[in-house]
Design goal:
Cofactor (chain B): Mo-molybdopterin
Strand content of chain A: under 5%
GO molecular function, one term (chain B): heme binding
Oligomer: heterodimer
Largest sheet of chain B: 5 strands, mixed
Order of helices and strands of chain A: HEHEHHHHEEHEHHHHHHH
Domain Moybdenum cofactor oxidoreductase dimerisation (chain B): 298-417
Helix content of chain A: 40-55%
Strand order of the largest sheet of chain B: 5-4-13-8-9
CATH superfamily of the largest domain in chain B: Oxidoreductase, molybdopterin-binding domain
CATH topology of the largest domain in chain B: Sulfite Oxidase, Chain A, domain 2
Radius of gyration of chain A: 27 Å
CATH class of the domain at 235-344 in chain A: Mainly Alpha
Largest interface: A-B, 113 and 134 residues
Distance between the termini of chain B: 57 Å
Shape of chain A: globular
CATH topology of the domain at 235-344 in chain A: Cytochrome Bc1 Complex, Chain D, domain 2
Low-confidence stretches of chain A: 1-23, 211-237
Protein name (chain B): Sulfite dehydrogenase
GO biological process, one term (chain B): sulfur compound metabolic process
Strand content of chain B: 25-35%
Chain lengths: 345, 432
């Protein structure tokens, strides 16, 4: 049976190489228009194919990076928390735990330009203009000490930038380095002794199973009691269904914000007590200048101002740090406010 | 259609909330039951579950419309996807794990099949769906979802494994459970159109050697695939396990790239560009490349090599029944064809016994194996080892390290060891 299968696979592999695929077909679909192809065909290849005309300086890039990227990648592209580091790591690839950044690892500059332009900023993709992308890419190169501070990157000098790890890749070689070796199906006397060399329980980084059976049994009444206690105030203020819906909406915020017991400032400020507090007023959080200024001017977060801000974060307070496209639906905004309020209590 | 989808979304959300509550209840019930059977029943005492009329044997159960789309019964509420918080910066660009320790057979139920998103699971309606084929083609085309349904259709069952599956185990045993060490995998029966059919419809020009595929979500996840593979067995799928793809698996249309790393199985597939060269985008340069000991890195390591794991007993599925008959079971798969044999060792790899395959191995799909033993109650170092139709035998971690060093993240297909103790509990260990 397996011989037969091999024969079929072999034939399938050879066929496409031997005969070009001809257009015949079913007459389904319609011709793609040039405008449509242009709108989606944004990828850029190592040889510069797909790279649009434009330019941007390290100097402009520094501001743009601060506004659009630093919230996750750090002001100097050094990375915040678990978010990717974009700079540094030079000479670490052969070391244990290599630091893989644009400077130390990425083989092609086109990849960076393409990714920043097509997939970033996180939560607000494809919002950077061509020139802004050039500037941000120039700044990331500068952060990696690959260009000087007066450098201007453009489509004309793009291919001249040398990436340090350009020659650091080989095409998959398992067929020669591994497949001939991994063929020994030993059945008996395969080794003399077996010793434990590492234990997962000692490391203890496995997520808890939310309690075993005993823990769950203990937890159940407590959880029910908590629900009962919470039921009354909730009835006075927020609609529980709205709060529940808000919990779902809040998933979009969770990447950067915490709310509830034990919440802390993360990429964004803690949201406990958001309704009623002045903009830019959480202690210990480094706000953007525009946000701090709004607070100083007297902006207080209430249901109306939060709703306006969430509808269009960059429009309501231009150049603020929050890299989020906003919530389109009014019901989502109402729900998420209700959830934040409920969590704040 | 819109309404239908809205109806599905909250159901999914409350399903998650429910499963949490269900889990608590299930836990409590299981606890009570254990106490009932374990403590009270001396030998020769009639079992009240038999001698007394039970409520479920007397009254009514739920009517037929109680759950228009059913979820597993609440007692199974702990059989869910789980994530590992410290792995990623947030849950939008993250991964969770299939509860393989609690499943049997080979088909993964969609509701607990692992998810990996780069920009969250988006909601894309069939009416809003467009697929474009352009680049080095005779005629650039746009298809609607309805167009795709009119092409000749095929059914194929394939595993999808993330290249990073078992990636956290390179440096040593880390995560204590088959779900976490091997759960970035699922196996579904897909219905769809072969990619070859669609490429033929557009007509590939002779200079076209690659395709670049891209998703519709904000990450615009894209990968380059050689044309030979595209024309060989790739599938543009819209159904999985008989029903529409789940949102988290790319509804309404995803790409299947059988046997190759999961990242290439682009979800919410919106664009296929025929190119002369690889695009070398982010996911095929900065990620999904494998750094070797000397600092050079392999790229284009697409194939998932043969691999297997014992799913039970395992750390999350300990032996509770003491010595005597024991079913050892697990999964095996290969991206290079069908599994032809799986061997099991209970002594850490000194001796091996060929396990029974539940069904003959299928091309690039999961294979279930069983080994039925009489357990003497002593500790075991439990391992499984897969062989595929090319003759490739699954290696040990040390064999892989000798060639690749310890800086790899992806493509760890090493033999896994569970240390099963005399009390039936199991732990993830690494052995010499």
């Amino acid at each position: 049976m397996s011989k037969f299968r091999n024969l079929v696979i072999g034939a399938a592999l050879v066929a496409p190489l031997a005969t070009p695929v001809l257009a015949e077909g079913y007459g389904l679909g319609r011709e793609a228009l040039p405008e449509e192809i242009a709108a989606w065909n944004l990828d850029v290849s190592p040889d510069g194919t797909g790279l649009p005309v434009g330019s941007g300086s390290v100097e402009d890039g520094e501001y743009l990076f601060s506004d659009n990227c630093a919230v996750c990648h750090g002001e100097f592209a050094e990375g915040v928390d678990n978010w990717p580091k974009l700079a540094g790591g030079d000479g670490t690839l052969a070391r244990k735990d290599p630091v893989k950044t644009v400077g130390s690892y990425w083989p092609y500059l086109s990849t960076l330009w393409d990714y920043a332009h097509r997939s970033m900023p996180f939560g607000n993709a494809q919002s950077l203009s061509v020139d802004e992308t050039y500037a941000i890419v120039a700044y990331i190169l500068y952060s990696n000490n690959l260009v000087e501070d007066d450098f201007v990157l453009s489509n004309e000098n793009f291919l001249e930038v040398e990436m340090p790890n350009a020659d650091g890749f080989i095409v998959d070689d398992r067929e020669t380095t591994e497949y001939p070796i991994f063929t020994n199906r030993c059945m008996e006397n395969c080794k003399e002794s077996v010793e434990i060399t590492m234990r997962a329980a000692v490391l203890d980084v496995t997520p808890e199973e939310e309690g075993g059976e005993a823990a769950a049994a203990e937890e159940a009444p407590a959880a029910e009691a908590a629900t009962e206690v919470a039921a009354e105030p909730a009835a006075l203020s927020a609609d529980p269904a709205l709060v529940e819906a808000g919990e779902g909406v809040f998933k979009k915020c969770k990447a950067c914000h915490q709310v509830g017991e034990g919440a802390q400032n993360k990429v964004g400020p803690v949201l406990n007590g958001l309704v009623g507090r002045a903009a830019g007023s959480v202690e210990g959080f480094k706000y953007s200048k525009p946000m701090s200024e709004k607070g100083a001017e007297g902006l207080v977060w209430d249901e109306t101002t939060i709703a306006e801000y969430l509808k269009d974060p960059k429009g309501y307070i231009p150049k603020n740090k929050m890299s989020f496209a906003g919530l389109k639906k009014d019901e989502d905004i109402a729900a998420v406010i209700a959830y934040i309020e409920a969590q704040s209590k | 259609m819109d309404e239908k989808e809205r109806a599905i979304t909250p159901a999914t959300d409350s399903g998650l909330a429910l499963s949490r509550r269900g889990f608590l209840r299930a836990g409590a019930a299981a606890g009570a039951m254990a106490a009932g059977t374990g403590a009270a029943l001396a030998e020769g005492t009639p079992d009240p579950l038999i001698t007394e009329v039970q409520p479920w044997a007397q009254g009514w159960g739920d009517g037929v419309d109680a759950t228009p789309y059913g979820l597993p019964i609440r007692f199974e509420g702990d059989v869910v996807r789980r994530n590992v918080g410290w792995l990623t910066a947030d849950v939008i660009s993250s991964i969770n794990f299939t509860p393989i320790h609690a499943l049997d057979g080979t088909i993964t139920p969609a509701g607990c099949a692992f998810e990996r998103h780069h920009s969250g699971a988006i909601e894309l309606a069939k009416e809003d769906y467009r697929l474009m084929i352009h680049g080095l083609v005779d005629k650039p085309l746009v298809f609607t979802y309805a167009d795709l349904e009119r092409f000749p259709r095929v059914n194929r069952t394939y595993f999808l494994e993330c290249a990073a599956n078992t990636g956290m185990e390179w440096a040593g045993a880390q995560l204590n459970g088959a779900q976490f060490t091997h759960g970035m995998i699922h196996n579904m029966e897909y219905s769809g159109v072969t990619l070859r059919t669609l490429l033929e419809e557009a007509g590939v020009k002779p200079e076209g050697k690659w395709i670049y595929v891209e998703g519709a979500d904000a990450s615009s996840n894209g990968r380059s695939i050689p044309l030979e593979k595209a024309l060989d067995d790739c599938l543009v799928a819209f159904k999985a396990n008989g029903e529409a793809l789940r949102k988290e698996h790319g509804y309404p249309v995803r790409l299947c790239v059988p046997g190759w790393e999961g990242n290439m199985w682009v979800k919410w597939l919106r664009r296929i560009e025929v190119t002369e060269n690889a695009v070398e985008s982010r996911e095929e340069t900065s990620k999904y490349t494998d750094t070797l000991e000397d600092g050079t890195s392999r790229k284009w390591t697409w194939v998932m090599d043969a691999k297997s794991v014992v799913t039970s007993p395992s750390p999350q599925a300990p032996i509770k029944h003491g010595k005597g008959p024991l079913v050892i079971t697990g999964l095996a798969w290969s991206g290079r064809g069908a599994i032809t044999a799986v061997d099991v060792s209970i002594d850490g790899g000194k001796t091996w016994t060929e396990a029974r395959l539940a069904a003959p191995g299928q091309d690039k799909a999961l294979t279930r194996f069983y080994l039925d033993i009489e357990w003497d109650g002593s500790e075991m170092f439990l391992q499984s080892r897969a062989t595929d139709e090319t003759g490739y035998v699954q290696p040990t971690k040390n064999q892989l390290r000798e060639i690749r060093g310890e800086n790899s993240v992806y493509h760890n297909n090493c033999i896994q060891t569970w240390w099963v103790k005399a009390n039936g509990e199991a732990e993830n260990v690494e052995v010499s």
